[in-house]
Design goal:
Layout lengths: L1 H5 L1 H19 L17 E10 L14 E11 L7 E4 L10 E5 L6 E7 L38 E9 L10 E2 L4 E4 L1
Length: about 180
């Protein structure tokens, strides 16, 4: 008791040390495991498109006997390692039967017929020498690219090959259409 009275600071430190040590002596520990999981779904998206641009169509001279060709592109991203991917193009907003048509901007009853074909090769998907109509709703088929290394980080670009048939009797104006791209996975 005399020790406590003579040096209260020293006594307090001793009491705190003893109390803290007692708590550690009574504490225990145990370990367990926590499961962590994730699922990555196969998914794809149309990441970009570039306009299928035909340029100037001249039904009197330049395109009186020759079709006008044009190209655009569709870029697709899919989960790494994806398979069974197909790309479809619909008939467009102004289709008549199975014929895709561009509608006149001024004379909206005028239509300029056109077609879209799949790239001639499956890789690198750029040649327009093919003749397979691209689109399951216009008498053609979906495009099934092969040899693709799919990646969510890098899009794959596919050439869209188009052609406006020769000698169409249409008004001088601009024409347009919208085609929906669908990627199936």
């Amino acid at each position: 008791m005399r020790l406590v009275m003579e040096n209260p600071t020293k006594s307090l430190l001793i009491a705190l040390l003893l109390w803290g040590t007692c708590g550690l002596a009574l504490a225990g520990s145990n370990t367990g495991s926590l499961s962590v999981t994730a699922t990555v779904a196969q998914t794809c998206s149309v990441s970009a498109t570039s306009t299928l641009a035909f340029g100037a169509y001249d039904p009197v001279v330049a395109n009186a006997s020759s079709a006008l060709a044009g190209t655009g592109s569709v870029s697709i991203k899919c989960t790494k390692g994806s398979s069974g991917i197909t790309i479809d193009l619909d008939a467009g907003a102004h289709v008549s039967g199975t014929q895709r048509r561009l509608q006149g901007a001024t004379v909206t009853t005028d239509f300029l017929n056109y077609g879209i074909t799949q790239p001639a090769t499956t890789s690198p998907w750029t040649s327009c020498a093919g003749s397979t109509v691209w689109g399951s709703t216009v008498g053609g088929s979906v495009y099934t690219p092969t040899g693709v290394t799919w990646s969510a980080a890098a899009a794959q670009a596919f050439t869209v090959c188009g052609s406006v048939p020769a000698a169409q009797n249409i008004s001088a104006q601009s024409y347009s259409d919208t085609v929906t791209v669908t990627v199936n996975f």
